Amino acid sequence: MIELWIKALHIMAVISWMAGMFYLPRLFVYHVDATPGSTQSETFKIMERRLLKIIINPAMVVVWLSGLWMAYAGGFFQAPWLHAKLALVLGMSALHGYFAGLVKTFAADRNVRSTRFYRLLNEAPPVLMAIIVVLVVVKPF
Q1: pLDDT tens digits for 70-98?
Q2: Where are the domains of the chain?
Q3: How far apart, in whole angstroms, are the C-alpha atoms of residue 4 and residue 89?
């Protein structure tokens, strides 16, 4: 029975993590156009920091802990699909870290990237997520 509770927790954490990972770069897209020091820019800074600290960071920790627990409990560490999934989740985690760095960059009013850059960056989390979901559900290898 505990396995089902852990799986439910994992799914909720994945949803929360992905929601934040989809929304944060969208905030960057809009933040680029705000004048540094303006009320709008300061509001974006608060939104970005809170999204990262209150939702994205804790969700990622729960995803990793619950996911590794399920992989261990299910004996999946030998499965090739899990190796691929873990590599992609590591990639998502690295992207998360990059986003955290961008939050600091915007907070210091040091952004030098364009709206176009952030629009392209916004596409990375959904692509990674789609591949991860296919690996988990289809288990192609």
Answers
A1: 999 999 999 999 999 999 999 999 999 99
A2: 2-138
A3: 21
